[in-house]
From TrEMBL:
Residue intervals of the DinB-like domain: 29-178
InterPro entries given in the database record: DinB-like, DinB/YfiT-like
Source superkingdom: Bacteria
Descriptive protein name: DinB family protein
Organism: Hymenobacter ginkgonis
Length: 192
């Protein structure tokens, strides 16, 4: 795959996924606060979790972006790009709900009172801008010049583009979870 096409794809997927996540903020409060029968997260908790997870992923993405740019001085980008293969299937699995067991760190568990829904929405808008800024700083393939370990689904070392794609796939995974909640909510008996 040509690197500029990959960057455009990641950019587009980020924007599309974040737009779909943002639409959930406009759903009725009763749906957003509905707790599914399995006692899983409400939509509001899922939105908070996406923001929490993005916060920590973006710390690594920003550090990786800076390191990748530094590595342009010591590595031959053309040589690295010639051998690069984007691990699409492994990363796409991140976006599939129930595809594998996922144990998240406690600090990424949503705390309903942690922040207001408008603050979470604003946070997600800022995080999208942050991720897009990192992509914009790496327009010619520089993002492949630094890798960070990702233990989720045994991904191993992934580069900055892959980390950004991971972030979007993580949000995409939770879109499916919110949709499951909405389907269950629609079929739930109404309280008397």
């Amino acid at each position: 795959m040509e690197i500029r096409s990959l960057i455009a794809e990641v950019n587009s997927f980020l924007i599309s996924t974040f737009a779909q996540v943002d639409a959930w903020f406009d759903q009725p409060a009763a749906l957003r606060s509905y707790r599914p029968a399995d006692q899983g997260w409400t939509i509001e908790e899922i939105l908070l979790h996406i923001g929490l997870t993005n916060h920590f992923l973006l710390i690594l993405i920003e550090k990786g972006t800076a390191k990748a740019l530094l590595n342009t001085r010591g590595l031959n980008l053309a040589t690295e790009l010639a051998h690069y293969q984007f691990p699409r299937e492994k990363l796409a699995a991140i976006g599939v709900l129930h595809a594998f067991s996922w144990v998240r760190p406690e600090h990424m568990e949503p705390r309903t009172a942690a922040q207001s829904l408008p603050a979470t929405r604003q946070q997600l808008h800022e995080q999208l801008a942050q991720a897009l800024s990192c992509l914009a700083q790496l327009p010619a393939g520089e993002g492949i010049l630094h890798q960070t370990t990702m233990t989720v689904n045994s991904l191993g070392k992934i580069n900055v583009y892959e980390y950004i794609y991971f972030l979007a796939q993580h949000a995409h995974r939770h879109l499916a979870q919110m949709q499951e909640n909405a389907i269950e909510f629609a079929g739930a008996p109404t309280p008397n």
